[in-house]
Prior knowledge:
The complex is a heterodimer. Chain A is built from ten helices and 14 strands. By secondary structure, chain A is α/β, with parallel strands linked by helices. Chain A has a six-stranded mixed sheet, with helices on both faces. Chain A is elongated. By secondary structure, chain B is mostly helical. In chain B, strands 2-1-3-4-5 form a five-stranded mixed sheet, with helices on both faces. In chain B, helix 3 links the parallel strand 1 and strand 2.
Amino acid sequence: MLNVDSVSRSFGDRTVLRDVSFPVGSGKLTGFVGANGAGKTTTMRIILGVLAADSGEVTLDGKPLTREIRQRFGYMPEERGLYPKMTVQDQVVYLGRLHGLSSAAAEERTAKLLERLGLGERAGEKLEKLSLGNQQRAQVAAALVHEPEVLVLDEPFSGLDPIAVETMVDVLRDRASAGVPVLFSSHQLELVERLCDDLVIIADGEIGAAGDRGALRAQHALPRYQLVVDTDAGWLRDQPGVTLLDLEGPRAVFDLDPGFDDQKVLHAALERGPVRSFGPVVPSLTEIFREVVR
Amino acid sequence: MTTYDAAKVVAAREIRVRLRDKTFIFSTVFFLLFAIAVTVLPVVFGDSSDKVAVADQAIAARLQQQPDLEVRVVADDAAAEQLVRDGEVEAAVVAGPEVIALQDRPGEVVNALSTQPPVRLLDPDAVDPFLAYIVPFALAFVFFFTSFLFGLQIAQSVTEEKQTRIVEILVASVPTRALLAGKVAALTLLAFAQVALIAIVTLIGARLAGLDSGVLTLLQPTIGWFVAFFLVGFVMLAALWAGVGALASRPEDLNGVSQPVQMAVMLPFFAVIFLGENESAMRILSYIPFSAPIAMPTRIFNGDTAGWEPFLTLVIMAVTGAGLLAAGARVYEGSLLRTNGKTSWATAWRSRTTG
């Protein structure tokens, strides 16, 4: 497990991170969301050791990170970049070697990885000759060639076409299922919601919420319910403690004031006829995000 | 993987990329042609138009039958000798008969005379005026262009990594020091290989062109020292080139920010070209680390250095080099990850961004 522990960082007199702590569980996809400038990239750079923290530390399985440990990390920075005039294969091999692979191992893994990412036929071409989508795949290959033990990706989905998004999703899931902690940031909240096991929400350099996606949803669930009956549900308006939010004939969404029992509302509904469904409305990630950031 | 291993991988890539680069191939071919031209041309020109001054009419008539000789008839022997001293003619035939020349035995003139007269050399130790002019110029030229070309390539390679943003991936994988060391080592090796190749070709060319042994004994230590000075002189500035490369985040900025380093290469070049005749100026220049790689070998060629002098200069350069390497490394590390716009020297010096 990768653990970010009380990390703070400022640039000049501008504090960018304030006491940031969160875990990235092994074998879990952890989504890292926050507005632009909230501190995501700075946090990731500190995890990678590209930036130093002013205070606090990052540990892997309890051990503080050293150059040797970090060398087995895979990183995809927000601002993508490879050598435009080098062939795809040459640079992926090169980056593999920089991560400590032997020449033979780097070549073997590069060939396999490029094949898997659908770049096998393009391996010998210069990067600048490739389409944008294929350049993105080459970038993914560059981050994965050394089979990293920790994967950190800054906005891995930005600029990807839908097919490339699916490839990326497969790759992330694959690494996670191999037991690797995977941290990725994204502005595409629906995608994060669909993909990740854990969530970290950062706002203005502070962690707003962090933890299991389901638990976070439950924690941020409002006392909000949806009821579906056979006839018109307009009677809810007169039910004590109920604030009706939305009503479409037999379907109603309402908030319940504190101290009122949801089961009483259900009983009231059953007294009026059959109830087709009744339950709490779980907030979407977008809603949680809005609430945390506010 | 240690920093050393990482630096080796970085250096290997740089060398592979450069060897395929047209600039490298082109400059190597150009300098080889230059080296051949410098050694072969004087012999070619020197032999084709031998001028000889004569006072005696009979001897003049005889020499005029030789198609390769241009005969100048003068009033007396003193006038003939003066023309030799002034370098107007290669040889003179005076009363005796006796053949006089400045430093080389004028074989053709001697052979043209049936008596095979004795030869008197007026100044056998003097360096051929053409060589005296061309050798310092050639040293200055080779040092300036090679140092500039390869130094600039260090800077360009750093700027390229910043511009393409791959630098963040690189810095996340290996220590900054390894990147810097790998680049400096690779370009130094290539520059050194090019200069050594030029040196070898020059010496072989000089031998084949039949330069006399006196010149060769001067040329060999000169070129030997030059190669050594080049190596130290290049490494001395290499980290600064990398530093200015990191200050720029686009190739367009590079020319501006690299100005101070360009000056450190350019000014010594012009100083030696313009002050080459001035002995005391050359003495000073041969101890200034930036101009020493050109000035000291020139003085060695002119034969006016004591044995210990080049060693002292080498020590001065090594100490300066150690300081500049540290300074260049600091600027490099302080600006490598600042990808928005140009970084100032002061900002780069103060900030150490990497952890």
